[in-house]
Structures
1.
Amino acid sequence: MNILIIGSKGFIGSVCYNFFKDLDGYDVYGADVVTEYNDPNYFLIDATNADFKSVFRKHQFTWCVNCAGAASVPDSFIRPEKDYLLNVNLTVALLNAIREENNDCKFLQMSSAAVYGNPVVMPIKETDRLAPLSPYGIHKKQAEELCELYHKYYGLSIFIFRVFSAYGRGLQKQLFWDLFKKSRSQQHFALFGTGEETREFIHVTDIVNAMSLVISGNQTGFKIINIANGSPITIAAAASAFLENIEFKGVFSFEGVNRSGDPLYWQADTSLLKSLGYQQQISFEDGIKDYCKWLKERG
Ligand SMILES: NC(=O)c1ccc[n+]([C@@H]2O[C@H](COP(=O)([O-])OP(=O)(O)OC[C@H]3O[C@@H](n4cnc5c(N)ncnc54)[C@H](O)[C@@H]3O)[C@@H](O)[C@H]2O)c1
């Protein structure tokens, strides 16, 4: 089976690339905007003018996994046009290249729980109302709609992963990275919110496990799947666990004011994911321990 990972140098994309590279029966190709001298199975993409059609003209794939895209809610408020280019433009360019050059290539899109905004009912189901609270969430929703359009009108088989909060070795953004930086420079610091907000953390290895279930199942059609463990944890508990593992000796508190674009509570309905055979392999406790080990090693 030939798999093309777009964004193969990124946080999720690199774990995905390495996972499939080591599996028998898979021929794996990467594509990113970063120069790579040693990997023959790599396509260098022009960051300002991505030509995906030439990639699919050179090679035909069974699956294309789109791990590219912007992944920061705060940054999407500062640079909405950049977020749009990476999350919407890039997705439609890929979909169109597949439509024209490799019509039977199945497409796996990394979307985000940000499309939900603040849920009305929990746990959140894939069919629930979408009410994003940020440019990032809106752009992810637009990209999902484009995926549906290319399935409906052009017959592409498309799977959308609504990823909740991903973490693991390599992550250099979001809550834990902010905590890491603060813990290295300050003995007292405050975080946004009250700490009572909840998130669904999923280790990057478990995201890739979920990918492998969909890819090896070789399904066709159109499906949107929540990617989470169905075990919400408060920001206060997550921050405490992280800071304990990083051996922070100072004090942290919460400002009591929520940041624009941040939803309050999340709990995912994971029935669909579990029906594919998914089982969590990395507990939050083990995952955080391993992530902190990596952070401490890199200094
Ligand atoms: N990290 C999370 O917690 C999280 C949660 C939900 C959804 N997601 C989604 O998953 C995807 C991957 O997230 P991530 O955290 O790995 O992001 P990342 O920023 O670490 O990786 C994105 C990669 O895409 C590459 N890229 C940018 N433009 C490209 C282009 N034109 N062609 C090919 N590659 C290009 C970048 O160079 C980078 O290596 C994003 O779409 C993100 O929105 C991430």
2.
Amino acid sequence: MAEDVTYSSYLDLDRILAAQHPASDAHDEMLFIIVHQASELWLKLCLHELQAARGCIVVDHLRPAFKMLARVARAQGQLIQSWDVLSTMTPHDYSTIRPHLGGSSGFQSAQYRMMEFLLGGRNPDMVTMHEAIPQVAHELRQEMDRPSIYAEVVALLDRRGFAIPREVLERDNATSWEHSSAVEEAWAQIYREPQEHWDLYELAEKLVDLEYHFQRWRFGHLKTVERIIGFKKGTGGTPGVPYLAGVLKNAFFPELLSVRTAI
Ligand code: HEM
């Protein structure tokens, strides 16, 4: 009954607020846990919006998709802000927590990987670490079988009459999106005459915004990690900062970057 609903019951606060379990006596561990948990909640919202936005793009309902993509960019703003809070943690503070983390790392965030997959950054090796939880591995594989948001946008360009080669439209979904000069040319036409193709122009800019925010998150993470652990290895087993610098080079929508040089 709606009358029985309280603030706490509606939001299931008992469970959410009982879900912080520091493993050490370190004062800063609460911050460490909460920043990660809050990030996972924002990621959950991003996935919810991105999945719905893709559904809208498939049926050419771009206006609702714009609203959702704009919301994702704002949620990414919240994710980026979290680096400011986390960077109040010093190397000494972190060193008291690190021994308790074992092999756990944000590297194993299934939602983060799902967001990359949805956008079109797809590395099948990233599913392997999730095999221990079959449902998670299954959902990531299922996503890899589907066209990403960007693949759906390129399919839309084709439906709107731009010359997109068949081999681009029939690409293997389980690989990251590779630059195509035909797709770049389609974007070039749109960017040269935005008045003629206003909704596609707006869609392109929404995607650019999203990728820009994604890169700002990655860069903020890298700089936060650098000031906290320097060049120590990550708990997830990668070389740490050099790995994070490497992923900064991954572009989700390569033609939307290259078109800026082309026009
Ligand atoms: C003291 C704070 C943090 C440190 C020292 C840190 C360190 C690292 C390192 C070294 C990696 C590389 C993988 C590894 O070997 O572990 C990594 C990956 C990652 N971290 Fe963090 N991290 C911190 C906070 C966070 C937070 C708050 C989030 C939010 C969810 C996060 C999410 C991720 C994600 C998603 C990856 C994978 C990135 C990719 O594969 O592109 N990290 N982290």
